[in-house]
Structure formats: structure tokens, C-alpha cells
Amino acid sequence: MKIENSLPRPQLPEAPPQTGLQFTVATEEDFDEIMAMSQDIYGGLDYLPTRYTAWLAETNRCVILARKQGKVIALESVCVIDDGETMLVEGLRVAPQERGKGVAGVLLRFCSQLVKSKWPEVKVARLTRDDQLGPKDFQKYRLITKQGILLVRFRAEDVKLRLAELDAISPQSSQSSQSSPVLVAPSAVRQLFLDSGLMDGVLPNATIVQDWQPFKPLRSNMDILLKKDIDWMVDDAGSPTVASLCTFPFRVPIGEDWYYLNIDMFGKDQDRVCQQFLSHLRRHTDTLKGHVMCQMFLDPPLWKPMAEFCRQTLGVELVKEYTQQCVVESDVV
Questions:
Q1: Burial profile 64-78: b = 16 or more Cβ within 10 angstroms, e = fewer
Q2: 89-102, pLDDT tens digit by residue?
Q3: Which residues partner with 331 through β-bridges?
Q4: d(C-alpha 132, C-alpha 323), whole Å
């Protein structure tokens, strides 16, 4: 195994000789080759184009490439969070012609050893998955939490008009006084989510999942989250039962003028979930033009009624039937 770009050599994994893999640290110059390998990944909702440059600059992150005969065939990113105890695995992708050959497993083992050499205090690896977990998966991972995935698509202009129609028909139907969403100022997020204890019964298994990234409610993680473009919302700042995080929309490589809007919803009250969903749509469709893929993660029993609301009331298209987002972890040894 060849190690490039001055990676630390102690305790690094050795790839099986027959794989012929080389591992390198990703650079700006690798971007086009990575994107060529990543065509059609994640159903066109690939976030990497908008995050790649920022990832390379993060001091708590490693972005590693696997090469075969000099060509990039896989990528994995690992970010250290949770006060240095967790390595968050993200962005994994393998070139289509190399899938099913064990490349992902070799790359994951390499990254795990690299992280342990740089951050010895790391104890667990966490990742989020949207596929069905089977018995073999539960031999490797512990399930932390799961959310239903509701994916819809629409033209921003159409939803903006529909929201105006709903308000004109019944102004109070979407903003009742008892459940009007409260936008939480960044300066108040730490107090509400960390210090008050008010979110203990709202967050699933004490986990803040933001756009596929699972965080424990810790100050160091809040420092990471508050640097991002996120709307934080609750139903009641004094006694919240529903909370949501809406990541600002960004372009995705489905086609021209396509955007992705991610909403992470926590709580079990359907009416209040609906209110916050509508509030996020109002805030962001107001300035968007073009097509939007909107993905909302929510308590699994709420998926069906919210899917019906999207189809029947908002008139948007359901992209796929029920799937789950699972946060899993395993020990790093």
C-alpha cells in the first residue's frame, strides 16, 4: 500500500496486496475526477459539490481517496465530533465499476486507523444510512435512532402560490395561535438545546441530526452547528414539544435550477410538525426560483399523514415511498 501526501505512518492499515490500492489526501485538484466518479449518486441529491472545499479546510476532518492505477475509485470523509470521542463517516462513494469488490471496507479500515493515529481519544464511529438494515448490520452496528424520510419535489413558484392560497382561504389554519412556530435566534440555541433540559423529551435518543449528521447535544458540537446556515425552530420556546432544523437550500446536480431543501423534524405532534414544515417552506420558497427536492426526516408514524398532506393539500409530488434514515455506531478498536 502506498501512502502519499505525508500521512502519518504509525499504525496505518495495510491494504491486501491484491487490491492494488493507494490512499491519498484529497485536494482541490481532485474535485473534477471525484465528481466524474460520482455521477447519479444519491439520486442526484449529492451534497459533496457544495461542501467539498469547506471539508478540505476543516481541521477536525480527513478526506481520503482510494486510487487504483492512479485513478480515483473511492472517497470517504471522516469528521471528529462529540468532544473528540466520535468519528463521523460521511460522503462514502465508490466508482460503479469497483462496487462489490470490498473497496469501501478497505477504505473504512484505513480511515479508522488514520483517525486513531491523529485523535487517539476517538471511541466510536457513527454514520447514517438510508437502506434497510439486516441481521449482519446489527452484528456490526448499534442502532442509535431512526427517522422516516419524506421526499417530495415541486417548483418553488407553484408552492409559493399554493401557500398564499391556503392563507387566503383560512389565515389561521396554518398558523394557529397555540402552535405558531418560533424561530430561535442563534444566540438562544445553546440555552434552549443544552442548558435548559427542555429538549430532553424532544430529541430522539438525545441526538441532534442535521442534514444526515448526528450530534450529541454538546457545546463543542454547537460550535460546529452554529457556523452553518440553519433555521432553528420550536413550537414553544418555554415548553417545546416539536423542534426542527432547516438547512438553507443549495444546488444539486440533478439539472439546471434544481435545489435541495433539508428539514430535520423532531417531535410527535402532527399538527405542530405540519406548522413548522409550512413555516420553513414559506421562508425559503419566497426567494427560490426553479425546482426543489425537499427531504424531511420525521418520526416514522408521522410519515403517512404528512405524505398525504403534501399530496392532497400542497399538491406536491411524492418522489418515493417510505424509507428510513438510521443512525448507527460501532466501536473503534
A1: bbbbbeeebbbbbbb
A2: 999 999 999 999 99
A3: 124
A4: 8
Task: Quote the cell numbers at residue 114.
Answer: 488514520
Selection from 145, 71, 74, 81 nearest residue 110 by Cα? 74
What confidence category does residue 13 fall into, taking pLDDT thresholds of 50, 70 and 90? Answer: low
Q: Write the Ramachandran bin of 9: left for phi over 0, alpha for psi from -120 to 50, otherwise beta.
A: alpha
Residue 79 has pLDDT above 90, yes or no: yes
d(CA 71, CA 49): 19
d(CA 235, CA 133): 33
pLDDT tens by residue, 285-332:
988 999 999 999 999 999 999 999 999 999 999 999 999 999 999 999
* d(C-alpha 263, C-alpha 244), whole Å: 7
Residue with cell string 442535521:
210
Query: CA torsion, points 315, 170, 284, 218, in degrees to nearest 10?
Result: -110
Cell digits of residue 7: 500521512
